[in-house]
Amino acid sequence: MEDQSGRIATDISEIWEQTKILHEIIFSLHRYVPWNYHETQRDVYNFSGDKDLEYFLQLASEIGLLVILRAGPYICAEWDMGGLPAWLLEKKSIVLRSSDSDYLAAVEKWMGVLLPKMRPHLYENGGPIIMVQVENEYGSYFACDYDYLRFLLKLFRQHLGDEVVLFTTDGASQFHLRCGALQGLYATVDFAPGGNVTAAFLAQRGSEPMGPLVNSEFYTGWLDHWGHRHSVVPVQTIAKTLNEILSRGANVNLYMFIGGTNFAYWNGANMPYMPQPTSYDYDAPLSEAGDLTEKYFALREVIGMYKQLPEGLIPPTTPKFAYGKVRLQKVGTVVEVLDKLSSAGPVKSTYPLTFVDLKQYFGFVLYRTTLPKNCTEPTQLSSPFNGVHDRAYVSVDGVPQGVLERDDSLMINITGMAGANLDILVENMGRVNFGRYNNDFKGLVSNLSLGEDILVEWEIYPLDIDGAVNHDFIGHLVQPRRSLRNPSSYEVPTFYTGRLSIPEGIPDLPQDTYVKFPGWTKGQIWINGFNLGRYWPARGPQLTLFVPRNILVSSMPNNITVLELEHSPCSTWSCEIEFVDKPNINATTQSENYAPQLFARGVWQNRL
Fold it and tell me: CA-to-CA distance for 169 and 74, rounded, in angstroms?
C-alpha cells in the first residue's frame, strides 16, 4: 500500500486497522519523502509535527509494518513540483533532475540531512526500512542523464551503506527503462490495470534478469483535474489484473491503497496546465477518509485466493457527522487588510517579479500599478505571452474587472481613470509535477499590456495569509463596509469568518465531516488556522472538502476563515457554508474523463 506524500502520519494506526487483513501478502508501507515539504525555505529544515518522519517510521515498526522508503529527490505523486523545492528555481537556467552542478549541490546537501536520519531505521539496523528508492520514473524525463543516476547511487551508498536495496521505478517498457535503469539500482516497473501483465514483466526482465518481479505502482484508481470528471476505474478491471500479477508470484504495491488530501497548496498539476484538486481520493480501495469501498472487498477476495486471510471482523468505516450550516460574515477585502497580509510592505520593481524572485513560494501575491491613461471606454488588459501563472483577479480602485487565467483567458477589458490603482491578485494553483516542465515559475512571469502599452512601475506585495489567519489577524481587522457595485458577476477577493460549535451531549464528537460551499465560487478555507485547501465548486468535480476530526475541537467554537476570490452568495442568498456527512467529489462537468483511455493503453505516462 502507499502512503501519499504529506498526508497526516498520525493516522497510520487507523490505516493499519483496515490493512492488517491483507498484511500477509501486502506487508510493506511505501512512504514518500517530499523534499519541499521538509525544506520549504532553503536551509530551513522541518521534521516536527505532521512532518516528523522518524516518528512515522517508529509507528510503522511498532505495528509490524515494513517500509519501502521513496526518498526522492523527485517523487511526482501529483504533489507540487513533484516534491522538488521551488527555491531551486532561483537559478532560472537550472536543469532539474540532471547533473547540473547547482542541482547536484542542493541534492547532496538535502540528502546529507535526510539520509543520516534514515540510516538507524534500516532493516539491518533493527528498523522497518527494507528498500529505498533513489529516483522515480526517470525514464519518462527528457534529460536521460546517467551521470545524475550514478551521482545518486554513490550518494545513497555513502549515507546508507552497502546492504540496503536501492531501487528505481519506471514505466513497463524498454523505452522507459532505457534512461531510468542503472546497474547497481534494482529496476522495478509500474503499470495500470487492463494491460498486458506478461509483457510488462518481460520489460522488467530486460533490465533485471534475476530477482523479484515488482509492479511498484499498480494503479487502483486515477488522479483528477479541476474541470474534468472524477476518475473512476472499474473494480472488475483492477481485480482481474491483480489476480494476473499474483498468479505469477510477482510483488505489487497498490497505488493508492488509501486516498489522500492535498491540504493547503500542496497539489500538483499536469501539462497542458491542469491543476489537481484538493481531494486525492483517487478512487482508491480506502477512500480519502479511510472508508471501506467495493474495491477494497474485491481486492481482498483476490488476495484470499493466494493466502489465507486473517480471521476476525473487518474494522468498520469511521462515522461522519453533519454539523449543519454555519453563517459567515464579511470581514474585508484583500486590499482593505493588505497591511496585515504583507507587513513588510511592497517590493518595487519596474517590471513584474515572479514568486521565486520574491521568495514567496506558495499562495498569493498582489501586483499593483497605476493606470497610465484614462480608460473611459473598455480597454484591453492582456498577457500576450501567456504570462499569468496561474490565475489573476483584477480590480481597478476596488472595482472588480475580471479574471486572467493561464492558457485560457489571456485578455479582459477594463475601465478606469488615469492614476487609479490597478490591482492584480495572482494565485499559484500548483506547480507542474510531471514531465519536462517541472521548472514552473509562478506569478506574472512576463509583462502585461494595457492596449499597446507595457505596464511598468509595480508595487508587489507577497501575502502571508496563513500567518495572518494563524495569528487571528483576519477576524479583528476591519468592520464590514459596503462594497462598490459592479454589474459583472465578479467581486473583489474578500475574507469571511464564522464559527462552528460542536454539539454537546453526543458521544464521540468531534467526528470527521465534509464542508460544502453552496453558492460560493472559488477560494481557500482555514479551520482553526489549518489550511484545509482550495474549493472550486463552479468548476468541479469536487464540491466538498474532507475535514478530519483532529483539526476540530469541542471545548470551544471552531474558527473558520474563507477567502472567496470571485463571487460569494452573501449579497443575494444565504451567506453560509454547510458541514455534511457525505462527500461529493464527482459532480458532473462538461469535460470528458480521460482515465478510461489511459487505462485501456495501460501506460500511465501517457496521461499528459
Answer: 12
Spatial distance between the Cα atoms of 516 and 579, rounded to a whole number of angstroms: 6
The 10 Å Cβ neighbour count of residue 338 is 18
pLDDT of 526 > 50? The answer is yes
Q: What is the DSSP string of 350-418?
A: SS--BTTTTT--SSEEEEEEE-SS-EEEEEEEE-TT--EESEEEEEETTEEEEEEETTTB-EEEEEE-T
- Listed in sequence order, the residues at least 6 apart from 282 whose beta carbon sits closer than 8 Å to its beta carbon are 220, 221, 222, 223, 231, 256, 259, 260, 288
Note the pLDDT tens digit of each residue in 209-231. Answer: 999 999 999 999 999 999 999 99
Using alpha carbons, select from 444, 461, 460, 443 the residue that is nearest to residue 339.
Answer: 461
Peptide bond into 272 cis (omega under 30): yes
Residue 444, beta-bridge partner list? 388
The phi and psi torsions of 352 (rounded to 5 degrees) equal -60, 145
Which SS3 state, helix, strand or coil, does residue 583 take? coil
Name the band, by pLDDT with cuts 50, 70 and 90, for residue 593: very low
Cell of 517: 460551499
The three cell numbers of residue 580 are 455534511
Q: Please answer whether residues 148 and 98 qualify as being in contact, where contact means their C-beta atoms are separated by less than 8 angstroms.
A: yes
- Give the whole-angstrom CA distance, residue 422 versus residue 415: 10
Contact (Cβ atoms closer than 8 angstroms) between residue 136 and residue 189:
no
Q: What is the DSSP string of 555-576?
A: SSPEEEEEEESS--STTTS--E
Positions marked catalytic: 137, 217
Q: Which helix (H) or strand (E) holds 54?
A: helix 53-62
- Return the half-sphere exposure (C-beta side, CA atoms, 13 A cut-off) of residue 29: 27
Q: Are strands 558-564 and 494-500 parallel, antiparallel or unpaired?
A: antiparallel
8-state DSSP, 41: B
Cα–Cα distance between 328 and 536 in angstroms, integer?
Answer: 18
Burial category of 165 from C-beta neighbours within 10 Å (exposed 0-12, middle 13-18, buried 19 and up): middle
CA angle 146, 150, 155 (to 5 degrees): 150
Q: How far apart are CA 535 and CA 549, in angstroms?
A: 19
593/232 Cα distance (integer angstroms): 9
Q: pLDDT (tens digit, 9 = 90+) per residue, 85-125?
A: 999 999 999 999 999 999 999 999 999 999 999 999 999 99
- Residues paired with residue 66 on neighbouring β-strands, in sequence order: 28
R_g over Cα of the chain: 25
d(CA 511, CA 553): 10
- Cα separation of 588 and 542, whole Å? 9
CA distance 76 to 33: 11
Q: Dihedrals φ, ψ of 39, to 5°?
A: -135, 65
Average pLDDT over the chain reads 91
- Asked if pLDDT for residue 18 goes beyond 70, the answer is no
Confidence grade of residue 601 (pLDDT, cut at 50, 70, 90): very low
d(CA 270, CA 608): 7
